[in-house]
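ok so heres the complex, four chains, lmk if somethin looks off
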Amino acid sequence: MSVKRNTWQKDAVRHALSEAIGFVGAQQLHQVLRNHGSTIGLATVYRALADLATNGDADSLQSQDGELLYRACTTDHHHHLICRSCGLTLEIEAERVEAWADEVAAAQGFVNPTHTIDIFGTCSACHERNIA
Amino acid sequence: MSVKRNTWQKDAVRHALSEAIGFVGAQQLHQVLRNHGSTIGLATVYRALADLATNGDADSLQSQDGELLYRACTTDHHHHLICRSCGLTLEIEAERVEAWADEVAAAQGFVNPTHTIDIFGTCSACHERNIA
DNA sequence: CGCGGTATTGACAATCATTATCAATAACCC
DNA sequence: GGGTTATTGATAATGATTGTCAATACCGCG
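and the predicted structre for the whole thing:
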């Protein structure tokens, strides 16, 4: 059986992620760490992030261009409203929907439900720019 | 300026997509077309799907493993409840949530809102198998 | 109906994020 | 400290998607 070991690499990734603002990609996080003098490997960053996500210490979602993004998990769970054009991201509350999602899952006999809810649109600034 | 032309390839993709059940990947759709004797190229399938999505004739979302999936746009809009373990997919109604999503987007000044709402969980069969 | 300009196609190469490989390293229990 | 083995990291492999570009075929026009 596998016994988890603590390494400075995992701590570094966890720390870097908690410092990051919003969602960050693995490649991006790796660059940040290298820029700070770390010699951590890219594959290790990927593994550490996957672990964090598995353990529920990080959330993940896919960006529009297919990159997997991570965010340090905070106690308050929320979702995103994202501008298709400029990428502006707003956090939104979704209490009503949280409950609904769990209900639906339970009604079909599904256990341990999670969900991805993201709303895309064109923010007012981008919309006006397109008209002008 | 570019003038759109109608080709049998675009029709083939549009048709294949409308025949498909649920969401389909570009690679998968390409295989289906080839199996039906078509000589259409993979790149063309990608381009046709991208066009359909741009024109609002198709919806797209990213699967868990990073593949881009498309679905013919129908009037009835629904979402999915997906088993993490066996991939079983159930369609779910989400009227309450549709309205909520549009409200939230509008409240922040976003126009032309779309959303991705998917619920993941472990279906009862897979859950029992894991226990046994 | 045939012609010409050009949008479109398709085979293939290139790209990019992510995952697998595997020898070397270092964490942890004793 | 020493041995076991989880973990690391350089690199290769994977797989979806996009770029390239000559060849093709669509469509308006005569």
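quick notes: Chain A touches chain B through 32 residues (CB under 8 Å). thats all i got rn
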